[in-house]
Amino acid sequence: MRNHPRHLFTFKNCAFALFACTFLQSAKAVDVLTQHNDQFRTGANLSETILTPAKVNATQFGKLFSYAVDGYVFAQPLYVSGYTIAGGTHNVCYVATMEDSVYAFDADSNTTYWHKQFTGGNITPVPIVDITGNNNLNIHGNVGILSTPVIDRGSGTIYVLARTKNTSTTTYIQSLHALDLATGNEKFGGPVVISASGFDNKMQNQRPGLALANGNVYIAWGSHEDFTPYHGWVMAYNATTLAQVAVFNTTPGGSQSAIWMAGQAPAIDSSGNTYWITGNGDWDGVSKWGESFLKLSPTLTVSDWFTPANYATLNAGDQDFGAGGAMLLPGTSGYPSTSYAIGGGKEGKIFVLDKTVGAMGHMTAGDTGAHQIFQATASASCSKHIHGTPVYWNSGTQGKMIYVWGENDVGKAFKFNGSTFTTTAFTQTTVKSPTTGCGMPGSILSISANGTANGILWASCVYTGDGVHDIVPGVLRAYDANSLGTELWDSRMNLARDDSGNLAKYTPPTVVNGKVYMASFSGVVNVYGILGTNNLANGTYKIVNRNSGLALDVKGQATTNGSVVQQFTYNGGNNQRWTVTGLGGGQYKIVGVQSGRALDVTGQSTADGAAIELFDDNGGANQKWIITPTSGGYNTLQGVQSGKMMEVVGAATTNSAPIDQWTGNGGNNQQWSFQTP
Fold first, then answer.
1. What are phi and psi of 325, to 5 degrees?
2. Distance CA 252, CA 289 (A)
3. How far, in Å, CA of 274 to CA of 254, rounded?
4. Distance of alpha carbon 274 from alpha carbon 217, whole angstroms
5. CA-closest candidate to residue 233, choices 246, 216, 214, 215
6. Which CA distances in Å does 109 have to 115, 551, 557, 605, 649?
7. How is domain 539-675 classified at the CATH fold level?
8. Which pLDDT band holds residue 585 (cuts at 50, 70, 90)?
9. DSSP state string for 526-586
10. 476: which of 406, 575, 656, 668 is 20 to 30 A away, CA to CA?
11. Taking the mean position of all CA atoms in its chain, how far away is CA 186?
C-alpha cells in the first residue's frame, strides 16, 4: 500500500561455528548470521555461485525491490537460508532499525513475516538530543538498535540490544532481547536490563556488533561524540539464560577508552578469545587501556595487548586507534588456523600483530613489538581514517589479499604472503570516497566469491559530502576483486532504477545467494540481484493484481495513444489480453492485443504517481519492464527508465481504479500474476 537442505554445522558453544557456517557449508545453505560474515570478520562469503564478474553489470544486475522500514538502519542485514517460518521454508532477511524495530522479511519476495517493536506508550527510542544536545551530529533522530544483532541458528534465536526511554519517569534503559527467529517472540525470560557498577545506560553507546562465542553473547560500548562520563565496556551474557557472566571495564579508576570500532563486531579465535581495539582514553598498561589492541579471554580478562608508542599523540589529536575493528588472518595452513590479528584506525595504518600469547607486542619504542606496520591509506589534504575493518580473500590467481578503502582515498588491495604484506597496493580503484572534496567515512567493504574464483569487492561508499555529521548520498559499488581498476557496476549507472539512497554509515553490504542487501538512511533496505530471473515465456497473458484480483484493462476498449490503463473484472476481452516479449537482459515489453500499443509510462516520467497508458511501441526505456517474482506466482513490474513499480493507485479493489508507477514498497497492489487468458 502507498501509505504506503540441513546445515553442516549447528551453533552450540563452538567459538568459530558462525565462521564455519559461512566458509564450509554447501552453496545451497549459506547464512550470514553475524556482522561481516564470520567470527574472524573477513567480510567474505565464499559460497556465492550466482553473482560473478561477468553477470554484475548495468544490463543484467540492478535493484529488485526495497524493504520499507521505520527508521535509519545502521545494523548490517542478516540472512538465514531455508528456514521454517510462516508455514513454509523460506530464506529470511533480518533488519534492525534506530526506532527499536526488528523485521523478518522474505529474502526473495519482499514479504514481511513479522515486525517487533520495543516501544509504545511512554516507552520511546532515546532521542539523541537527550545525550548530545544536538540533532545534527554523528546520529540524527533516535537511538534505538544501533549495532548489528547476532543469530544462533541452532537455537533459532536473534539477539539484539535495544535502547529506550521512559518518558513518564525520564529513565533510560538498555536491554538485551532474545527473539525467536520464526515469530519474533521473546525467549529465555528476556529481555534483561544491562547493568554494571559505574555503567551509565544513558551515555554509553552500544556501537560494535554483537557476537556469540563460548555459549555467551558479547556486547561492547563506547561513547556518543566523546560526551562524558563513559568508559569502554565489554559484557558477556549467557546465551540461553541471559544471565550476566562477565564484565570488563577498559578504564576502572579512569575514563574514556571507548570500544566503538565503527560498528565492527569483535574477532574471535578458535579458543574463544575476543579481540577489541579501543579509542582515546586513559592508559597505564595494567588496568587502563586507551588506544590499545586487546585480546580478552572468554571470561574477559586481558591475556595480551598492544599499544602504539605514540599513544599520547593519538590521544591528544583524537586519532582513535579503535576507529576500525580487528580481523584475524590465516596461518600457513589456512582457516580455521589463524596466526595474526590486524586492525587500523584514524592514522590509516595497518597493524599486523602476532596473536600468539605474549607476542602481541605491548608498548615498545618504535613499535618494535608489532609484527608489521604499514601506511595503507593516504590523503594529501584530508583525513585518511580506516573505519570498520579490511576484508580478506584468497584469490586463485593473485593469492591472499586484504582490501582497504579509507576515507578521501581510493580502494586498495595488498598482497599477503602468509607472514607480511606488500606495502604497495597490488591494484586500486580509480575513484575516491567521496568522489570529490573531503569527507568521512570512506567505504565499508564485503567480498563475495566461489571459493578462490569469481571474487567481487562490494563497497558501500559515501558519494559526495561529509557523512561524519551530515546525512549524505551513498553509492554501492562492485569491482572485480582481482582488478580494481575497472568498476563492474555501481548504483548510479542507472540511478532511476538502482539508487541506494542516503548512506548507511559504517554498514557493510550483505551478499548471499545471488542478492545484495544494502541498508540506507532513506527508510528502506535495498535488495539487488540479477534482473528478470523468472524467465517468463513469451506469449499472451491476462495480468491480474494480487491485491484486488482484477485484471489489467484498457478503459473503454480504447486503442489510441494515451488510452487509460485501469483494472477491471476479467471478461475475456482483447483489451484485457497482453503480449509479453523478452528483450534480453531480463527486460520485457508488454503490448495490448487489441490496440497493438505498448504499456508506457506517460511522458517518460520518473516520478511517483505517473500514469501508465498505451502508446506506440517505440522501444523507449519507459516501455521496458523488469519482471521479478515475489511469491505465490506473483511478480513486480519495474520500469527500466524510472526504477518504480507498476501498481493500482491507492491499493483500490474496485473496477476502474487507474494504474500508475510508485516507489517499490512490497504492497500487494504492486504485484501481478501472468495467467493464461
1. -105, -175
2. 9
3. 23
4. 12
5. 246
6. 16, 21, 33, 26, 21
7. Trefoil (Acidic Fibroblast Growth Factor, subunit A) (2.80.10)
8. low
9. EEEEETTTT-PPSEEEEEEETTT-PEEEEGGG--STTPBEEEE-----GGG-EEEEEEETT
10. 668
11. 24
Residues of the chain with CATH 2.80.10.50: 539-675
Q: Which amino acid is at 392?
A: Y
Model pLDDT for residues 560-570, shown as the tens digit of each residue: 999 999 999 99
> In 10 A of CB 200, how many CB atoms?
16
What letter represents residue 162's amino acid?
A
Q: Which three cell numbers stand for residue 219?
A: 556486547
CATH number of the domain at 17-530, please?
2.140.10.10
Nearest C-alpha neighbor of 363 from the set 278, 274, 292: 292
Residue found under cell 562492485 = 478
Say what the pLDDT of residue 416 is.
96
Which residue type sits at 248?
A: F
Q: What angle do CA 114, 117, 122 make, to 5 degrees?
A: 155
Question: What mean pLDDT is reported for the chain?
Answer: 93
The amino acid that residue 228 corresponds to is: T
Rg (CA), the chain: 26
Instruction: Determine the Cα–Cα distance for residues 66 and 491; give it in Å rounded to an integer.
Output: 14
Q: Are 3 and 349 in contact (CB under 8 A)?
A: no
The pLDDT tens digits of the residues spanning 121-132 come to 999 999 999 999
Q: The whole model's pTM is what?
A: 0.82
4: pLDDT strictly greater than 70? no
Residue 3 has pLDDT above 70, yes or no: no
More confident residue, 627 or 342: 342
- Looking at the DSSP assignment, which residues form a beta bridge with residue 462? 474
Parts of the chain belonging to CATH 2.140.10.10: 17-530
What are the DSSP calls for 477-525, one per residue?
EEEETTEEEEEEEETTTTHHHH---B--TTPPPEEETTEEEEE-SSSEE
Is pLDDT above 60 for 22? no
In angstroms, rounded to a whole number, what is the distance separating the alpha carbons of residues 236 and 519?
28
Q: Evaluate whether 507 touches 72 at the Cβ level (below 8 Å).
A: no
Distance CA 620, CA 308 (A): 60
